[in-house]
Specification:
One of its GO terms (molecular function) is actin filament binding. The protein is of the alpha+beta class. The chain is built from 3 helices and 10 strands; from the N terminus they run ααββββββαββββ. The protein has a 4-stranded antiparallel β-sheet, with no helix packed on it. The two termini are about 25 Å apart.
Length: about 160
């Protein structure tokens, strides 16, 4: 689109909302300063005004939806009650992703309300080979909520494969 119109300002005004919605829906991965692992762009870590946060590095960043680049990093405080659960889950999920998804990335978001901990894990992997007429993408979201000391919880998932 940018090449056809040859006007960045027009592109930004015309399609920026559509690109932002697409990037959140597709869990687009982006490089974040300070770590090797990418952060996924999702509704769950959207702070508004094109700012997102990476719970792994505890920083927020401005995300350019057209260029798919992070910039303007700032410290961001995570939910302290859920953080031990979130970081442990993310560590294990990251290892799982590295073993099973060559081009995969994950982000785990945590939150709490009184005694209830909520975790949402996002996974994205893709491989595009249009010259070979082969493209594929995997996206999934796994959510759970539990109370400390509880021995059971319900895990719900959403899988989108292309």
């Amino acid at each position: 689109v940018r090449t056809l119109l040859n006007d960045d300002a027009l592109v930004r005004r015309s399609v920026s909302k559509a690109f932002a919605e697409y990037n959140r829906d597709q869990y687009i991965p982006t490089k974040v300063q300070g770590v090797e692992e990418e952060c996924l762009i999702t509704d769950a870590n959207d702070l508004s005004d094109s700012r997102f946060y990476d719970p792994r590095t505890r920083q927020s960043f401005k995300f350019d939806h057209l260029r798919r680049e992070a910039s303007e990093y700032q410290p961001h405080t995570s939910d302290e009650q859920s953080e031990p659960w979130r970081s442990t889950f993310e560590k294990e999920l990251t290892e799982y992703i590295k073993e099973r998804y060559t081009y995969g990335a994950c982000t785990v978001i945590g939150g709490s309300d009184a005694d209830t901990i909520t975790l949402a894990a996002f996974i994205e992997s893709h491989k595009f080979e249009p010259k070979n007429f082969w493209n594929g993408r995997w996206r999934s979201k796994w959510s759970l909520a539990f109370t400390k000391g509880q021995t059971e919880c319900e895990l719900t998932g959403l899988i989108k494969a292309q």
